[in-house]
């Protein structure tokens, strides 16, 4: 099979598909690593709401995708930035998403984003506002029986004056959590409004503050996800974590090496790239559990160029590549996103994502993918 793809000048040349779809695998109850896929949501393309207005979600397709992830044995990181949380999906929409996933998949491994995104930044006057906002979401999610991921707070960056402010807020919020939670350190490449999180723009003092939070509340912390796209920083922090506290890699550039680990520790995974890479993730972790490290790397290493393209700068637009692959693979019938985010990447990005996805076996129905790629090309006049 082949398709004519344009270059940056619009010149067409044939691309011959060569990939073989990833072998099927389902993770068992005790996989070699704890793996969460941060799942996207499917927009309703027929809504009359403006893209910049209230989000309208296609719940049927959104839940169908979560059933697919759970069927592979993967955990689901719900209502996170991959679901356009705070970038199209507001708190009421996020809570509805959390509720539906909890009801449809009560036995699945699911952790839910909990933050302060319902606050109006213009009205935040101090730490008490941040504390109340966190606790409001903690209560709402726990009322549904949901586990928590404490997301980084834009409002906390705005009002915190010292590292001790972070320690105090997190300690107060963790005291209200029924079960151990996952902390989330999201770098400013993902969200520029989080620059200086933990009280410093420099990694070492920021890490010290995050570690102080964990050490003061170790019984309430399952682990921490750091999304800094820097493997060395993750490894440094991984080696400093208290016993029993997991490192969840959020590094969409270096995940194979970090998940494999070294003689001093390993990283588990909570990754946006494991949305489009779900079958590769399941197969690779299954191989790792069988002691086949070579098979693990042979599956995931070829996906890294695709991941680095999807998450290239401006990194906050990575959701566009994730949903594009969801459309190519038949998980939704259209390429429309909340907040009109399908327009945040250029055509050459999409053509290269198509090529790389084929080459690492991630087009599960190549004929369908070709047909949909042709529709996108026609929209651009190619």
Written account of the structure:
The chain has 382 residues and is α/β, with parallel strands linked by helices. 41% of the residues lie in helices and 13% in strands. It has 14 helices and 10 strands. It has an 8-stranded parallel beta barrel, surrounded by 4 helices. Helix 7 (231-238) links the parallel strand 8 (221-227) and strand 9 (246-249). The two termini are 19 Å apart. The model has no long low-confidence stretch (mean pLDDT 97).
Write the layout of secondary structure elements.
Layout: E1 2-6, E2 12-16, E3 35-38, H1 59-71, E4 75-78, H2 91-104, E5 110-114, H3 127-143, E6 147-150, H4 154-159, H5 163-175, E7 181-186, H6 203-216, E8 221-227, H7 231-238, E9 246-249, H8 255-260, E10 268-271, H9 278-289, H10 293-300, H11 304-310, H12 318-328, H13 347-359, H14 366-379
Parallel strand pairs: 3-4, 3-10, 4-5, 5-6, 6-7, 7-8, 8-9, 9-10
Antiparallel strand pairs: 1-2
Helix pairs in contact: 1-2, 3-5, 5-6, 9-10, 11-13, 13-14
The proportion of residues forming helix, as a percent range, comes to 40-55%
Biggest sheet strand order reads 3-4-5-6-7-8-9-10
Spell the H/E element sequence: EEEHEHEHEHHEHEHEHEHHHHHH
State the shape.
globular
The end-to-end distance, rounded to whole angstroms, is: 19 Å
The tally of beta strands, per DSSP, is 10
Q: How many H/I helices?
A: 14
Rounded mean pLDDT is: 97
Question: Radius of gyration over alpha carbons?
Answer: 20 Å
**Spans with pLDDT under 50 lasting ≥5 residues?**
none
Q: Quick one: biggest sheet? A: 8 strands, parallel, barrel
Percentage of residues in strands: 5-15%
Overall structural class, as computed from helix and strand content, comes to alpha/beta
